[in-house]
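Figure caption, in words: inputs first, then the predicted bound structure.
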Amino acid sequence: MEQGNVTIAPAQGKLGVLLPGMGAVSTTLIAGVELVKKGLGRPVGSLTQYGTIRLGKRTENNQPLIKDFVPLAGLDDLVFGGWDIFGDNGYEAALHAGVIEPERLKLVQEELEAITPLKAVFDQNYVRRLSGPHIKTGQNKYELAMQLMEDIEAFQDRTGVTRMVMPWCGSTEVFMEVDDVHKTLQAFEAGMKENHPAITPSMLYAYAAIMSNVPFANGAPNLTVDIPALQELASDRGVPICGKDFKTGQTLMKTIMAPGLKARMLGLSGWFSTNILGNRDGDVLHDPSSFRTKEQSKLSVLEYILQPELNEELYGDYEHQVHIHYYPPRGDNKEGWDNIDIFGWLDYPMQIKVNFLCRDSILAAPVALDLVLFMDLAHRSGMSGIQEWLSFYFKSPMCAPFLYPEHDLFIQLTKLKNTLRYLQGEEQITHLGLDYYQQP
Ligand SMILES: NC(=O)c1ccc[n+]([C@@H]2O[C@H](COP(=O)([O-])OP(=O)(O)OC[C@H]3O[C@@H](n4cnc5c(N)ncnc54)[C@H](O)[C@@H]3O)[C@@H](O)[C@H]2O)c1
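Bound structure (nicotinamide-adenine-dinucleotide present):
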């Protein structure tokens, strides 16, 4: 295809979406796509479906839809598959998740029922509050990874898809730090054969994906692809990876508000965030070791946006707390409260209260869709390894080890759009605009 700075292979044929974990996010994504395809719903929240991109000067009035500007797969081209520790088909799983009401799910029952999850690679040591019957067995972790690769190959043969993407939508695993076994590919492969405890199931899916030439996006806060061995493998094999932890709900609001406070140089003395939620994700996060993984992901946001080391007086001494409470009556309809203690001119204190009655998976589904379409674009554009330009979608964006992550939602959006402009050989937008005022 005729392009700008890079050659982008056309989005020909079907695109497979392989979902490890067919719970609330996955089924809301699949049901949503099927409803949209039938004209029974709108893909609100999706940049790939609604977003526009300005090209050239403001006076040119050239703002095409992103999906018309870059060659993305269409919704009709998506073919879903996945794995779960429960054997429920997509319809049963969506009913269980309780995000979309049963009457609406009935409209896409047939499409959802056609999706039966494959047996999962799972180990309760890594998600303590879950257990299920639909699980693979194998001699060691390496053999389990091989089984996942066979699943991927069989999916491609069965469906005839030309390309695939794997967004991790499985449960949050226990907190884990980079270990020696994660540092090189050699150590990692040996570790799989020795059943090393620092190699988690999500890492096996990621390994299988990268080995199968399938881009991997990490929707959970797990370590997963955030380790040198898998990053090196992805770069070497020309496979894009990105993560981690879909940015929805409270953290989305934080990365919208904090840049605003900082832009106006208002000080911060405290940010207290608490949530109640009652879905399976909330249940898993009730385990302190899974919660620690989530907490780390949520806490880092403010520090990177406010840069206390540069603004000691305004941001050098704030208290930041994040709490999640599992409260079953709420199901997927989370409620979050933020109390933000700020200070202004002459140090006068002020407070901001945010009470967000959000729907977690309704916010996550368009993020997952955009990641599927953009990761496929990245792959067809020859991009490999960490895709920092997709930071926009994550609570803990992955970036090169010598960089700090960019958390500011507006910088992230600029970066994303500038990457698209770069791919198509369009000029970058600097917002300088002085030339509009120059005399002829
Ligand atoms: N819902 C959101 O808005 C949101 C936002 C950010 C991140 N996330 C993350 O996305 C992930 C999915 O969230 P959800 O709300 O859909 O949770 P969920 O509990 O509804 O679904 C997760 C599914 O993964 C399955 N699973 C667990 N381990 C697995 C494995 N090893 N292999 C295959 N399947 C496995 C579970 O059985 C479950 O069905 C979680 O890690 C969550 O923290 C969700």
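Residues 20-25, 83-86, 97, 120-122, 127, 130, 132, 169-172, 201, 219-220, 245-246, 248, 279-281, 284, 360-361, 363-364 surround nicotinamide-adenine-dinucleotide (CB under 6 Å).
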